[in-house]
Amino acid sequence: MSDQVKIAVMGASGRMGRMLVDVVTHSDRATLVGVSERPGHDWIGRDLGDCLGRPSMGVPVYDDPLDLIVKAQAVIDFTTPAATLSHAELTAQARTVHVIGTTGLTDEDIAKLDAAARHATIVRAGNMSLGVNLLTRLTQQVAAALDEDFDIEIVEAHHKHKVDAPSGTALMLGEAAAAGRNVALNDVSDRGRDGITGEREAGHIGFSAIRGGDIVGEHEVIFAGAGERIILRHVATDRAIFARGALKAALWGQGKGPGHYSMASVLGLA
C-alpha cells in the first residue's frame, strides 16, 4: 500500500534484527524495503527469506547502507556504536528518520548524533519498551522526592551474549535518577566494587550487572534508606516489546522536524 511507511532494518542477522524483521513484516502500517549486513557477510546479495530459511520475501540484503537508506523513510538501527554513527551521517543527508536502539554509546558518540539531528529526525533510547520508559519517569520523580539519606542502586540482568555493561537501560535509569537530584551522572556514578572499597559515598548512584542464560532484561532501581527500601522493577520476558517500540518510533517520526528525540516523546511522556 502506498501509505505504508518504508522501513529499513540495519544488521538483520542478529537476534534483535530478526525480531525487527518479524515485527515490521507483520505490520499493516509499514513495509520492509530492505535490510543491511556488514560487508563480507554471507547474506549479502540474497533474498532475506532465503537467508532466514523462509519463502522468498522480495527483500534484498545490502552491504552498502547508503543504497538502502535512500529507499527508506525510516531506518531502525540496533547495531554497534561505530556502525550507528556511520548510518547517522547518511540518514542526516537523506533526511530519513533514524531510530536508534544501539547501546554502548559514549558522550562523544552522542554529541555526534546531536550534530546529525540538526538535519534529520533521530529517536534514540536505551530501551524502547513502554514499561521501561514509565519506570524511567518514576525513577526521576522518586529521586527528586528523596534526599541523599536514600542511596540509589541500579541492578540489571541480561543474557550471557550481551557485550556491554551497564546496559543502555540501566544508564538511562541512572540519568533519570541523577536528573531528579539535579546532578550529572558522570559525577556520581559508581560502576564497580571489588575488594576493600571503603564505605559507600553519599549521593553516588551504583550499578551492578548480571549476565547469564537467556535473560531478556530485568532492571531494578533501589532507593535504600535507614529502615526502609523503595524498589522499582521492570521485567521483560519477550524482546518483541523492544521491536514494537522501535516500529512505533519509526512511524511517530514521520513528518517530525529535525531533532534528537527520546521514547518519552514518542509515548507522550516528555
Automatic annotation (TrEMBL):
Residues 131-267 form the Dihydrodipicolinate reductase C-terminal domain. The keyword Kinase does not apply. Its main location: cytoplasm. It is found in: Cytoplasm. NADP(+) binds at residue 38. Keywords: Amino-acid biosynthesis, Cytoplasm, Diaminopimelate biosynthesis, Lysine biosynthesis, NAD, NADP, Oxidoreductase. InterPro entries: DapB_C, DapB_N, DapB_N_CS, DHDPR_bac, NAD(P)-bd_dom_sf. Pathway: Amino-acid biosynthesis; L-lysine biosynthesis via DAP pathway; (S)-tetrahydrodipicolinate from L-aspartate: step 4/4. Its EC number is 1.17.1.8. The active site is at 158 (proton donor/acceptor), 162 (proton donor). The keyword NADP applies. Coiled coil: none annotated. It catalyses: (S)-2,3,4,5-tetrahydrodipicolinate + NAD(+) + H2O = (2S,4S)-4-hydroxy-2,3,4,5-tetrahydrodipicolinate + NADH + H(+); (S)-2,3,4,5-tetrahydrodipicolinate + NADP(+) + H2O = (2S,4S)-4-hydroxy-2,3,4,5-tetrahydrodipicolinate + NADPH + H(+). NAD(+) binds at residues 11-16, 37, 101-103, 125-128. CDD domains: DHDPR_N. Gene3D superfamilies: Dihydrodipicolinate Reductase, domain 2 (3.30.360.10), NAD(P)-binding Rossmann-like Domain (3.40.50.720). It comes from the Bacteria. Homotetramer. Catalyzes the conversion of 4-hydroxy-tetrahydrodipicolinate (HTPA) to tetrahydrodipicolinate. Belongs to the DapB family. This is 4-hydroxy-tetrahydrodipicolinate reductase.
